[in-house]
Each structure stands twice: as structure tokens, then as C-alpha cells.
Amino acid sequence: MSNLNIQITLSEKKKDKLPTDQLVFGTTFTDHMFIADYIEGKGWHNHRVVPYAPITLEPSATIFHYGQTIFEGMKAYLSEDGVVRLFRPDQNMKRMNHSADRLSMPQIDENHALEALVELIKVDKEWIPKDPGTSLYIRPFMIATEPHLGVSASKSYTYMIIMSPVGSYYEEGIHPVKILVESEYVRAVAGGTGNAKTAGNYASSLKAQEVADREGYSQVLWLDGIERKYIEEVGSMNVFFKIDGEVVTPALNGSILDGITRKSIIDLLKHWSVPVVERRVSIDEIREAHRTGKLDEAFGTGTAAVISPIGEFRYQGELFYVNNGETGELSAKLYDALTGIQKGTQEDPFGWVVELNKK
Amino acid sequence: MSNLNIQITLSEKKKDKLPTDQLVFGTTFTDHMFIADYIEGKGWHNHRVVPYAPITLEPSATIFHYGQTIFEGMKAYLSEDGVVRLFRPDQNMKRMNHSADRLSMPQIDENHALEALVELIKVDKEWIPKDPGTSLYIRPFMIATEPHLGVSASKSYTYMIIMSPVGSYYEEGIHPVKILVESEYVRAVAGGTGNAKTAGNYASSLKAQEVADREGYSQVLWLDGIERKYIEEVGSMNVFFKIDGEVVTPALNGSILDGITRKSIIDLLKHWSVPVVERRVSIDEIREAHRTGKLDEAFGTGTAAVISPIGEFRYQGELFYVNNGETGELSAKLYDALTGIQKGTQEDPFGWVVELNKK
Lengths: 359, 359
Ligand SMILES: Cc1ncc(COP(=O)(O)O)c(C=O)c1O
Ligand SMILES: Cc1ncc(COP(=O)(O)O)c(C=O)c1O
Fold this sequence. Notes:
The structure is a homodimer of 359-residue chains. In chain A, strands 1, 2, 3, 5, 6, 7, 8, 9 and 19 form a 9-stranded mixed beta sheet that branches. By secondary structure, the first copy, chain A, is of the alpha+beta class. Chain A contains 8 helices and 19 strands. One pyridoxal-5'-phosphate (PLP) binds next to helix 6 and strand 16 of chain A. Chains A, B: InterPro entries: Aminotrans_IV, Aminotrans_IV_CS, Aminotransferase-like, B_amino_transII, BCAT-like_C, BCAT-like_N, BCAT_family.
């Protein structure tokens, strides 16, 4: 199936590794990176693993002016017996192609992309931390490189994978976060780029995130850009509510990201026969559920934190505490189940995990 | 007022210059560029004019992942007597700061930015073409450079100016373009980044532009993202309609760009006592005006083409021809007046033009 010819150039000097308790998310990178180039008419070529190093671009490269760039985020886990596990990497590659289509960027070969990733992980395997809660964060991304100031799709691109060892998201075990419901700024609307993983969506979110930071909230909850009342998603997580025994999450409406953790949580809940529905959810419904004591739990889902219980929402000055600000039972159970599958300490009934160098 | 210390390093070898009739917009660049660096706590520093060359960034630089980047577009004109003219450059610097604020990027000193631009133009003055309709296109831009994968504002930035000699926009004189009214994709909504000049807005527009290209239309006309019926702007132009003797343009509503050509056209029309209003304009109103023979003229406004008469709109399969597909009288008059002021062949009653190295 695969005929990818990856050129490997090893770095001459290895970098020192930080102790896992000193790792700051996304600041330390491994010794190598993967690169492939694309030129219209020629396609993808020059697939290579090279020492991690700066990249050089023309000042007129499309990425700087017209923003054609997409990315993915995923993790590799190392277990005691030396097995490396990836969680649904096929889904990331598929979503990368969905994003590429929206941004008029070239498709990647999903099998080749996985092969390239496996090769890079092999080269930098010693960088995967082993301590509980730690992992290797993987960032595949594609940028437009044509040196041309014109609003049209670039004719050349670079695809890269860089990797960063990350410490435990929860230093003292899983604990709830505080979320600010945003009512001034809008992240995306249907017809826009909200369901693609592209830089512009994040750039536009910073202004609201700054307010949240200042007021002691960890992330923003976005409302829809049209009626400003339906719940979309959190900064970098999808969101779930347990209301009166039923789990509810906003339906994929074209403006939110089709999260891989989100879809896995839905499958897990169905597997457990916990009622779960995808539909429109308004902030008024959440306020009402809170008022009548029916808002049992709330949590965000995403690759970084896996499950992030939500203990408090603030919406236009009003505070809604969830489960007395404590981690709910279902949130904790989902966290344990999903991280257990990811790390290989629990059975994987769905075939989600890809195991590398298994004996 | 100014104390900017600009270090100048001249290039050792000058590039060959293309004849103006061979210039393709945004592909040829002058011999030098301007750069300044910003670091949180230290501010802007190391202002320099250096030989035009590629730039080097960490693969984890914020610009590649979270898209903090803004830009401006302006032109310098050279007249027979050696005077270089800039058109309302203060407005570009002001808009750059507006964009910077929306994207959580640092403010620039508008006077310093202008001083830097003048210095760069001095160094590369021989690159400004002189032929009718030609000019030097100027692209100031700012990118986020911090090597950190985290959704938060970068702590370091680079501000640059690059310049490109451009040929006449209209090879055979001003002529009308065909515009496709977009009804599937959305460019921006209020609360988003539509009124900032940032890369993400353009990245998200490419998909619709591709359809327009394929079907023989030069640009897309965006409708509002909420009701999908109010007119916003064209791909890289604001838009005006002359309906029954009155000129109408969509009001600044938070999701369209506050175009410098747009505001100059409004001032010119007022100066001429031509009735002009900024308000909501629906596509149905345009259809109706067309049906009743009241759609006298339509044109786009922007730095690249100055005035671009519109001869045809297509909206959901329906065609609206404007002025029999020919350039309207007012469009032509506005084009002549504005380009005359820009090139110094006509009086500038508004004080819009900044003249450099005037004897
Ligand atoms: C905007 C946004 N929504 C949701 C998610 C969650 O997606 P996933 O579960 O695939 O990590 C992320 C993070 O990846 C995100 O950036
Ligand atoms: C989206 C958009 N609207 C409008 C304009 C026109 O603005 P200006 O007249 O300042 O060039 C531009 C181009 O600069 C643009 O990119």
C-alpha cells in the first residue's frame, strides 16, 4: 500500500531533556521533525526526517499574508512495557484533509502521513515521557509558501510534524475549571471556517481569551454568531452537559470543530447505555437547568486535557456553579476510561488505539 | 518628534528590473526591506533597512499555528518631476493599529512607521515605475514569532515592509468586471475579525473565489453571515451602487473593512454635492433596482484598482447587468479624480497626499 521513501538525517547533537515536572506545554521540542514539500503539478515530494531547526521562507510567502495554514493535535503515550500508543490517528489525518479542502490547500495521503509520523516517533522515541499523565504532543501542520502577494491559493506548500513532550495536564489530579461565556466576540458562523482547524479561528479568539484570563477564567465558551444564544464550544474543547440524567452536546452545525475526543465520548456513553444526544443547546437552557437544580455536570473534551470538568460558568455577570464546583461522577468515569484506553491500561473495545513496536 | 534610529545595510548586488509591461502584481520585490522586532517588556527595537531576503522562524512560531498576523496595502506614485507621492499613509498606519488591537498584537508608533516607510522608499526609489497607471505597491505586515504552541498572544513579533513595483491594473484602460454574489460561504460576522486586515479573512475567502474564477467572475460579493441578504463587500474592495441618482454603500457594521478608498470616495462625492449614503443595502434591493431600471452604476473601491466598475452581477443563477456592462459616467469621473490626486496631476483639496523629496 505504501511506497513512501523517507530520507532520514539524524541530528549530530542531542538536546538535553527536561525532567517531566518542568515541562511547559508546547515549549520543548524533540531532536527531529518531518517535512514534505508540495508544488502544483508535481505533488508531494522530498519526504524527510531532519534535525529540528528553524525554517526559512520568503517575506511574501502566502502564509504571512493570506493565512493558508492548517494543523492537527494528537498524542503518543508510552507504557511501562515500551509500547507506544496513538489514539485514533486516522481521524486526525482525515480532519486535516477536511481542513485542507476548506482552505483550498492540497490533500495529503492519509496513509503516508501516518507512516511519516510513525517514522518520526521511532527516531525520537526516547523523548516520550513515561510518568503518569505525561505524553508526547504531536503537531502536524501545513503552510502555504508561494512568494506571491495575491489573494489566490498558493501553488506551493510545506507539511511538517513537530513533537513536544508534555507533562501532566492536571498536576494534582483532575479538577474543574471556570468558564466565561462570551457575549461580545464571535468565533465562527456556518459558511465560515469554524469546523476547520486553521490558524485564523484561534487568532480571532485571543481577544476574548485575554478577558477570561484577566478575570480568572480558564477558557471562553462561544455562543453562535447569529442569535448569540446557542452554545458552540469552548476555546479548544467541545462541551458536554449532563442535564437531568441525560448527556447533551451541541450538534455539529458547520461552525464548531468535529472533535475526536467528542466523538469518542459519545461512543463511550452509548456503549455504556448512558443517554446522549447531539442537538442545539441554548445558554438559557443551561441557566434554567441550573436554576431548577437539573444541571448535574458539565465538561469540556479535547486532546490536551482529555476531559476537563467545568465547575463554574459566568454569563453576563451571572454565575452558574455546577456540582458545587466539584468534579462530577460521570466526568471522572469518562476521564478514567478514555485515558485508560489511551495508555493501554484498559481494554479498547472500539479498536481506537494504534500500538507501535509491540513485541 | 521622532527619534527612530534606522540602521541601513545596502544590498551588494542590485536585482535586474523588469519592464513595466511584464510586471505581475506582487511577484517582483525591490532590493531592500524594512524590519523591526518586538519583545514583550522591551517594545519595538532594532529598526533596520536590509537587503530583501528570506526570513527564518521556528517551526513552532505562533504565526504558523494561531495566525496572529496583520497587514496593510498602499501605493507610492512617481511623477515626471521626480516627486514621490503617498496617498493617506496615516490612514493605513491607523488601520494597522486597529487590526493589531483586534488580533491582540502590539501597537506600532504610527509616526515611526511612516518614517520607516519613507526611509525604505528613499533607498529603493529607483524601483518606482513611472509609466501611466504604474506604481510601487507597499506591504507593511506584522507576524507573531514566539516559539510556543499555546493559544495565547505571542510575546514576540516582527514588523516588516516589503515593496513591489506594479504595472497598470487596467491594461487597456478602465473596464468593468463581473462579480459573483456568494450565497454559500460567509466571510465574516460582527464580533469576528471582518473589520481587521488579517490573514484569516482572506484564507477563508479562497474557496468561494475558486468558484468565481472557474465560472469567469473576477471576484465574489459577500453577503452578511446572519441573514445572508445584506451586502458586505467584494473580495478585496468595498462596493458602491448608484441607484436612481443616489450613491449608496454598505455602512461600516463591524464585519467589513473600513476601506481608505471607500472613505475618500465618500468625501469626494460630498465635495461634489452628489448625494451619498452609508446604510444597509440588501441584494433584493439591488435586484429590484435592476428590474425597474434604476440601477445606474456599481463599482468596487480599493487600493489595487482604485475604482473597478462592475458590469454584471450573478446571484443564484440570475444575471443583473449594470449600465449595459459598460463603465458608468460617475465611475469614470471618480477614477480620474482620485488617480489624478494620487499622481499629483490634479489638485488635492483634502490634503490627502504626502509628497516626498519635493524640490
Ligand atoms: C476549537 C477546538 N474545538 C475542539 C477541540 C477538541 O478536538 P479534539 O478532541 O479532536 O482534540 C479542539 C482541540 O483540538 C479545538 O481547538
Ligand atoms: C476585504 C477588503 N475590503 C476592502 C478593501 C479596500 O480597502 P482600501 O481602499 O483601504 O484599499 C480591501 C483592500 O485593501 C480589502 O482587502
